[in-house]
Amino acid sequence: MKPIVIYKSKYGSTKAYAQWIAEELSCEAIENKGLKAEDLSDYDTIIYGGGLYAEVIAGVTLITKNISKLEGKKLVVFTTGITPLDCRDYYDKMVMEKNFKGDTQTKVKVFNFMGKMLMSELSLVHRTALKALKKLMSEKENPSEMERLLVTLCDCDGDFTDRKAIKELLDYVKE
Ligand SMILES: Cc1cc2nc3c(=O)[nH]c(=O)nc-3n(C[C@H](O)[C@H](O)[C@H](O)COP(=O)(O)O)c2cc1C
After folding, report:
1. Taking the domains of the chain in order of start, what are their residue ranges?
2. In the prediction, which pLDDT does 159 show?
3. Separation of CA 19 and ligand 1 centre (Å)
């Protein structure tokens, strides 16, 4: 097995998971900065991690747009976010449908981890976006359960990263 971990991380939580995974697999973890499918040709197992931003897995198009070029490789994606992991509809439906179109869903194994969101670290753009989202959701007349949850998540302030959470991913990669 020749794995590589690639990540895109603005505030560091995805990077932390990427480094923990790489450490366990004794392989490299590299940042997704202008990488192309061709850069992955030497590896048979690609583990991609990205933070969730409005349900989009940061930079995951490196995998999804190149799915045919990556044919034959074991493809693993992990997300980090602040939505509780028991919100399975969110992860298994909304996030999957937003990021994996058509049959790409069947070609990639996806794991979800808890990330961090510290208000004191957020950029002004992100803080403003969360404020606007909270206002929009709070004004809904008949908010869905997810929309109500979103309002509370906009005020989330904490680090929920957990190294132990990578075990299932490691087991799958080593299978
Ligand atoms: C503007 C903004 C949008 C976000 N959207 C989501 C989201 O849709 N789902 C989620 O679970 N977390 C969301 N988060 C939380 C981030 O995914 C979480 O902080 C993640 O750990 C960030 O990864 P990073 O530290 O590697 O950048 C959002 C955070 C910000 C600032």
Report:
1. 3-116+159-174, 119-156
2. 97
3. 19
Whole-structure pTM value: 0.96
| Ligand 1 atom nearest residue 13's Cα | 25
Q: Whose CA is nearest to atom 4 of ligand 1?
A: 53
Which CATH number, 3.40.50.360, 3.90.190.20, 3.30.70.240, 3.40.190.290, labels domain 3-116+159-174? 3.40.50.360
How far does the centroid of ligand 1 lie from the alpha carbon of residue 168, in Å? Answer: 22
151 lines ligand 1 (CB under 6 A): no
Please check whether residue 21 is in contact with residue 170, taking contact to mean a CB–CB distance below 8 angstroms.
yes
The percentage of residues in the chain with a pLDDT greater than 70, rounded to a whole number, is 100
Residue 54 near ligand 1, beta carbon < 6 Å: yes
83 in contact with ligand 1, CB cutoff 6 A: yes
Which 3 state secondary structure label does DSSP give 106?
helix
Q: Residue 32 contacts by C-beta under 8 Å, 6 or more apart in sequence?
A: 6, 7, 8, 48, 50, 59, 62
| Count of Cβ atoms closer than 10 Å to residue 36 Cβ | 10
Q: What is the pLDDT of residues 69-120, one digit of tens each?
A: 999 999 999 999 999 999 999 999 999 999 999 889 999 999 999 999 999 9
